[in-house]
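Recap from last week: sequence in, structure out.
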Amino acid sequence: MNTNDFDFNLPEHLIAQHPSEKRDNSRLMVLNRKDETIEHKHFYDIIDYLDENSCLVINDTKVLPARLLGIKKDTHAAIEVLLLKELEKDVWEALTKPAKRVKVGTLVTFGDGLLELECIDVKEDGIRHFKLHYKGILIEVLEKLGTMPLPPYIVEKLDDQSRYQTVYADVLGSSAAPTAGLHFTKELLEKIKQKGIEIIPVTLHVGLGTFRPVSVENVLEHHMHEETYILTEEVTEKLNQAVLNKKTIVAVGTTSVRTLESNFDGKFHAGKFDTKIFIYPGYKFKVVNQLITNFHLPKSTLMMLISAFATKEYIKKAYSNAIDHEYRFFSFGDSMFIK
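Predicted structure tokens:
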């Protein structure tokens, strides 16, 4: 299977640079896998496609202000760090630029010494492990020094940082937003609940496994990066009950899909886990029945996942249709519902 099978040409003006004025006013493309039809709606219409037998699974992770601009303590060279994952107390995995300047023992300082990162291990692909030195509470330090880690294709300034969080973001730990959830408003979620639809939160902290590009030609040679997910006892019980009651499991976003499919083996299990699950065409879905997702980057693992959920040909047709109808793409773009 070749990575180029998941490529497409996207006019640059369709890359959304800012969120739609109102979250649920974004457009919604509805794909029906049974007859391969395509409908054009708005996201607030999603409620019409859900009924009391639906169970909506959301990812309640919260994005850290994880992008930090600092200087090397000895040479004052500029260093950019993106915190990815806490490995143990105050030890973090991070993407570093320029990585070649950061070796074991390198000290990078931020905000006149408010935060200092000491490199303790060197990994491939620009990844470093750092010991963090600071006073007080880390999230408060990051809120002072860090910025939202917007993807590199968003070049316009985001005035309201909360627009890169879902309205239900709760558990801090992500270095990117679970963007399919950005379309929900509190009012829409309330209407969904009033319709008798259960909403169940899982937590997957979004990192390299989700947003790292595929750099190999052969899909099977791509190395997925580990991401951490959490299912509480209460959530696990609700998910198992939903499966027992033959509910339609509607995953909000590819991160929710990967959490559910990683954990389910006939039933769900509570705990904190790491997953490297890589879903591409040929994968047999165990538990997810429907999917709400955004329009993804060409040749990405996310394109591969949705091509597995529908078919490669159907997704190509849908994306071509989206381009013709000038849908907005990527993190701040429009939405797709695959049923």
